[in-house]
Amino acid sequence: MAEKYPPAINDEGWPALVHMLTDRNHVALEDVDLFVFTQVRKRTIEKVMKTLDVPFAKAHTVMEKWGYTGSACIPMALHDAIATGRAKAGDLILLVGSGVGHNQAGIALRLTDRLVAS
Q1: pLDDT tens profile 71-116
Q2: Where do the DSSP E strands lie in the chain?
Q3: What is the CATH number assigned to the segment(s) 8-117?
Q4: ∠ CA 33-17-8 to the nearest 5 degrees?
Q5: CA 8-92-15 angle, 5° bins
Q6: Is residue 29 pLDDT above 80, yes or no?
Q7: Which among 80, 113, 114 has a CA at the least distance from the CA of 95?
Q8: Model confidence at 118, in pLDDT bands (50, 70, 90)?
């Protein structure tokens, strides 16, 4: 990539995706138990959570353990949240990711007993 990845892509795109996910699933931001974003920069996640007016404590990060692991970072963070007890059966979790090509995607999922026990 010749140019630096513009910070505004995630700073603006992630909150927009979060709002789209909550709207489409008819839930409020307060109903979300945990947010997992691409583990690029902790400051970006902090900024997005502030933009959403949601406590940073509701975001799960693993970059401090393993650094940036590319496309594996979101499933690694989700697994870590389950393994450490941050995420449990019944929790509503939003996963939001972005890629170098400025692609972004997100999903809202509710953990089940089966997912947590795996």
Answers
A1: 899 999 999 999 999 999 999 999 999 887 678 999 999 999 876 7
A2: 34-37, 92-98, 104-110
A3: 3.40.47.10
A4: 115
A5: 15
A6: yes
A7: 80
A8: low
pLDDT at 102: 74
What is the pTM (predicted TM-score) of this model? 0.90
- Return the axis-axis angle of helices 8-24 and 42-52, rounded to nearest 10°: 50
Lookup: tokens for 28: 């409020």
Domain boundary assignment for the chain: 8-117
The pLDDT of residue 3 is 66
Residue in this structure with the two tokens 């697994």, named with its chain if needed? 79
Burial degree of 25 (CB within 10 A; 0-12, 13-18, 19+): middle
Q: Quick check: 37 and 102 in contact, CB under 8 A?
A: no
Nearest to 19 by CA among 101, 106, 87: 106
Q: Are 31 and 92 in contact (CB under 8 A)?
A: yes
